[in-house]
Amino acid sequence: MNGSPENWFSETLHGTYEQRFEVTNILHHSETAVQDIIIFETPFFGRVLALDGIIQTTERDEACYHEMLAHVPIFAHGSVQEVLIIGGGDGGALREVLRHPKINMVTIVEIDGSVVELCQKFLPALSKGAFQDPRCNLLISDGVEFVKMTDRRFDLIIVDSSDPVGPSAPLFSDAFYRDCRDLLTENGIFICQSGVSFVQETEARETIRRLNSVFTDAALYVTQVPTYSFGFMDLGWGAQSHTARNTDINTIRTRFNSTQLDMRYYSPQIHTASFALPAYMHY
Questions:
Q1: What residues have CB less than 8 Å from 262, skipping those under 6 apart?
Q2: What angle do CA 46, 48, 53 make, to 5 degrees?
Q3: How far is 223 from 124, CA to CA, in rounded Å?
Q4: Radius of gyration of the chain from its Cα atoms, rounded to whole angstroms
Q5: Out of 160, 163, 179, 234, which one is annotated catalytic?
Q6: Tens digits of per-residue pLDDT, 8-27?
Q7: Which of 182, 195, 199, 260 has the highest count of CB atoms within 10 angstroms of its CB?
Q8: pLDDT in tens, 226-240
Q9: What residues pair up with 9 in beta bridges, in sequence order?
Q10: Is the entire prediction scored with pTM above 0.85?
């Protein structure tokens, strides 16, 4: 943690730009075998998780990310039962997936067990007990190796990773995407995070190139997460059929209404609109 005064956390992910968070209490700070972890409290965003100095999630705006990561593919598909999450040790994506009663099993593969343990202790609102759900199969393992070795098949694969540096770098490769594709069921969907394209254009361009080289149907869709500075957060979509992504809004609305889920960000209208990209993202 750096900056002035001392009770501020500074993030310099984007080089020439710095954003700062007032820190009222440091709940935990340690160096694991994988990465640096800090969890702290702020007056506005609530509790915050940062890995290797980069903000991962905050209590205030995490739903903008986790709801879109999970519900867009689930409502588009219509009959997801088996889910794989690579990363996501904070439990937010797991929580949202498990809100759907028709989900039979979620396998979550997280490389750093400390993230799971610490987030359950200091950020319990993110997982809300999801790791104790009998449908959760938690594996502390390397996601890249898991998708190479498993013979399981999944209706949905979500890659909930940090940026393509450090332990997450191997999750941004053609080989990893191909391995994930080969684990999908016939109508399965692959979802990944792809940064904030306004300042991470190379990452977004590489994601859509990679998706196009691996999947029949490839696209980006967007969400708005205030602490991910500079506008839209990009999420990647890959499938072997165009059907799910083209599900009409009336069908999405019917599926959504049948669940009676209370959302903070996601809605059928947002679902449809999220695939409409600004001109600067027309790659």
A1: none
A2: 150
A3: 23
A4: 18
A5: 160
A6: 999 888 778 889 999 999 99
A7: 195
A8: 998 888 999 999 999
A9: 21
A10: yes
Question: What angle separates helix 201-214 from helix 174-181, to the nearest 10 degrees?
Answer: 40
For 107-145, what is the HEC assignment?
A: EEEECCHHHHHHHHHHCHHHHCCHHHCCCEEEEECCHHH
Tokens, residue 216: 């029949």
How far is C-alpha 132 from the geometric centre of its chain's CA atoms? Answer: 20
Cβ proximity of 106 and 97 under 8 Å:
yes
Coil, helix or strand at residue 82: strand
160 is an active site residue: yes
DSSP, residue by residue, 246-261? T--HHHHHHHHHHHT-
b (16+ CB within 10 A) / e for 193-221: bbbbbbbbeebbebbbebbeebbebbbbb
| Residue type for position 50 | A
Q: Are 234 and 193 in contact (CB under 8 A)?
A: yes
Residue 230 has phi, psi (to 5 degrees) of 85, 30
Sign (positive or negative) of CA dihedral 93, 110, 235, 188: negative
Q: Taking CA 81 as the corner, what is the angle to CA 80 and CA 86, rounded to the nearest 5 degrees?
A: 85
- Per-residue pLDDT of 114-146, as tens digits, reads 999 999 999 999 999 999 999 999 999 999 999
- The residue assigned the tokens 């009663």 is 101
Residues sharing a CB contact under 8 Å with residue 209, sequence separation 6 or more, in sequence order: none
**Residue in this structure with the two tokens 């069908």, named with its chain if needed:** 251
The pair of three-digit structure tokens given for residue 155, joined into one six-digit string: 């209706």
Yes or no: say if 90 and 56 are a contact pair by the CB < 8 Å rule: yes
Residue 276 burial class via C-beta count within 10 angstroms: exposed 0-12, middle 13-18, buried 19 and up: exposed
Structural contact between residues 17 and 229, judged by C-beta atoms closer than 8 angstroms? yes
